[in-house]
Each structure stands twice: as structure tokens, then as C-alpha cells.
Amino acid sequence: MVGLLSMAGLMLNLRVQEVCDQLPLSDAIKQALLYRRGNLGKVLKLVVAFEQAALGTASDRTLIRLNHYYLDSRSWASAVLTGLQES
Description:
With 87 residues, the protein is an all-alpha fold. Helices cover 77% and strands 0% of the residues. Helix 4 runs parallel beside helix 5.
């Protein structure tokens, strides 16, 4: 959820603050989106660093796990999009 919402501003041509103001989000999600704070914020920072290939100090084990999670998320997104197209 946080990952999707982190890009909502770009998709809607709004600032992230505006997106947060318009949706009934928990404080933890708002903190993650706006300030990269809390556990969700840490995960979001990690994902962004992964996407930008900026994990120079990460262990091989961490990179393997992140690659696995990334491929799982791509499969999930493809399945969801396929379901939407068939509707």
C-alpha cells in the first residue's frame, strides 16, 4: 500500500501531502510517505534504494531476498492488471 501511494502524487499530478490529506490514511502510513519515518518508512526507503540500484553495502543474502520480493510483486501486479483488462 505504501509503495503504491508513494507514486500516487506523480500519477495524479499532486504533491504527496495533498494525496495524504485526501485519503483516510493511518498516521503510520502518512509518516512513511511524507517523512520516511517508522517501520513503513524504513521499508519504503529500502525499496527506493533497491529500485535505484543504490544498495552498495547490502549483503548478498539481502539482495537475493529483495530480488525475490521484487519478482513476486511484479507477478502480483501483472495478475491484477490482467484481471482489470478482462473486466
